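Encode chain A's predicted structure.
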Amino acid sequence: MPPSVSMAERIIIVCRDARELNQKAAEQFIAAANRATKSTGRFTVALSGGSTPMGLYALLASADYNRRIPWNQVHLFWGDERCVPPEHIDSNYRMAHESLISRVSIPAANVHRMRGEIEPGVAAAEYERMLKEFFFLSEGAPPCFDLILLGLGEDGHTASMFPGSAALDEKKCLVAAPYIEKFKAHRLTLTLPVLNHGADVVFLVAGQSKAAVVKEILGKKTDSPVLPAARVMPLDGHLTWLITRDAATALVEP
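Encoded structure for chain A:
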């Protein structure tokens, strides 16, 4: 299997394992940070939750990578959050705090978390207001994150946009609070207009269990993508899929 495959709308990079995936993602993070800080004086990144990015965050906090990042100019946001308090075991903020934030010298004011502990609709509206103020957005304009990190579920969901969710059709709101039937709970999530306005959007996908959905999304071209992750197609930015070899096995026929 080749290490990388260029496509019309995306770049697919197949990594040997999670270690190589984390290393390549860390280099992309650092490159994006340096470009942004030199250009605008700050670096804005929307973090992904779940288990896959944990290794990346730990690597970024390690000595060799930590020193290469201008943390005082980095602003951390979240692509989605569970509706739980920040200290809860399921909190995406907690995972990022333990693996990254608490281990680097980023100012507390540069960490912009979603408040999963309050009423979901209120939390979504609050985060949307914060994004509009931070990015100085005009009415109807989405923010342009320098980097957006995304994961992929076995059902094709990304961030907290699941198949069949009304959030997928949201065109005005920047942040939604959809009810996820399979979990009997609300989630907070950035919407597609935001994800598709990022300068660099990077999917992190690892594990054999993702092979079938990776093939469904990347193994064929369609003008009418159905799965949520397939609908992430940045208008002017770059889209990269970093995939471990075991997750990419179904992309190439034996």
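The helical segments are 18-40, 54-61, 63-66, 92-99, 120-134, 192-195, 211-218.
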